[in-house]
Write a structure and sequence with these properties.
Helices cover 44% and strands 7% of the residues. By secondary structure, it is mostly helical. It folds into two domains: 45 residues; 221 residues, no CATH class.
Length: 342
């Protein structure tokens, strides 16, 4: 190999090494820039963990009486508009598919339908779905009960209900049939895994014509229709904090309702009428313990097999015939008995 060829080979090797070094340098520089951006983004969007005392104070503040609102009406709308929305990315909730028996499902469906209808029955569809999502978000958060009905009826036995319709007599007003059907469809979808991503991990909301004192304490997410939605601040309001496990529906929603104070108010109806129009009431035995088998009452669980069904049906029919009242007998003016027809 000539000296010229050797020199050219060394130049090529040097150039190749320089290019490789340059490529490594550029890759390292890009990685450093990306790391810097990600770190800055994380520092901006991740808040510190709430202390137990701060969490307790927030729960107490958001459970206060509506009478403690800062303002209502147009003044409230101005106050709400002045509170900025969060610029942090939304974290959509995990899908929730209800587990449990048929009684759990019927109870959860009734309670969630009530919440959607009485809270947002005539709001845009996205707003109705958002209310259902808030209920499910609450059920999964450590600060709230672990059943759908428990969340909806929280505070029903105290002066302040978490959802105002539970305590203000709305449950005793007959709902509009079409809007009730729509609310039920929204509730069914939510219990089957539908997620309303627009509200992320929201656990609170209020109408835009009221300004609650707790609003500035939470993270304002979005407004859908007339409702403004919020999540807990810090990591307590992020998806990782929603660790609660669904326990089923241990209480009958009909038993959770506060008593009707008066039926004389305009629009009020008898509760049985309201329930009939709002969907069939859930039948319960006198010793119902919330869908759980109460063995202290002497009940034992028995599911008849195929060979028992016919016999059991015949026995039940025979017992019903034996207990059925006979034809009514009246006495005519002549004194002769007359069988009255039915």
């Amino acid at each position: 190999m000539t000296s010229f060829a050797i020199a050219r080979r060394r130049v090529a090797e040097h150039r190749t090494g320089s290019l490789a070094f340059a490529a490594l340098f550029v890759a390292a520089l890009v990685a450093a820039v990306l790391w810097s951006i990600m770190s800055a983004h994380a520092a901006k969007t991740v808040s510190v963990q709430l202390s137990a005392a701060k969490a307790a104070a927030l729960v107490a503040a958001t459970s206060a009486s509506p009478a403690e609102n800062r303002a209502v009406g147009e003044q409230a709308k101005l106050i709400n508009a002045a509170l900025p929305f969060s610029t942090s990315p939304l974290q959509a909730a995990q899908p929730f598919a209800i587990r449990g028996d048929d009684l759990d499902h019927r109870r959860a469906l009734l309670c969630l339908t009530q919440a959607v209808y009485y809270e947002a029955g005539f709001e845009p569809m996205e707003g109705r779905r958002a209310v259902a999502q808030v209920v499910l978000n609450r059920m999964r958060h450590p600060a709230f009960p672990k059943s759908v009905c428990g969340v909806v009826y929280q505070g029903a036995s105290s002066p302040v209900c978490q959802f105002s319709f539970v305590c203000d007599g709305s449950l005793y007003r007959a709902p509009a049939a079409a809007a009730w059907r729509d609310a039920k469809a929204v509730a069914e979808a939510a219990l089957a895994g539908f997620v309303e991503t627009a509200v992320g991990s929201a656990t609170h909301y209020h109408a835009d014509y009221v300004a609650p004192r707790w609003a500035p304490m939470l993270t304002k997410i979005t407004q859908l229709g007339a409702h403004i939605f919020y999540r807990w601040p810090g990591t307590w309001g992020m998806r990782a904090a929603f660790t609660g496990r669904y326990i089923g529906e241990p209480q009958d929603p009909l038993a959770l309702r506060p008593p009707l104070r008066s039926v004389s108010e305009p629009g009020m109806v008898d509760p049985t009428v309201s329930l009939t129009q709002a969907g069939p009431p859930i039948a319960r035995a006198e010793n119902d313990v919330g869908g759980l088998l109460d063995t202290t009452k002497g009940w034992t669980l028995h599911i008849p097999g195929p060979d028992e069904v016919a016999t059991a049906t015949s026995r039940a029919l025979a017992e019903q015939r034996a207990k059925a009242p006979g034809p009514a007998v009246v006495v005519a003016a002549s004194g002769a008995p007359v069988i009255a027809s039915r």
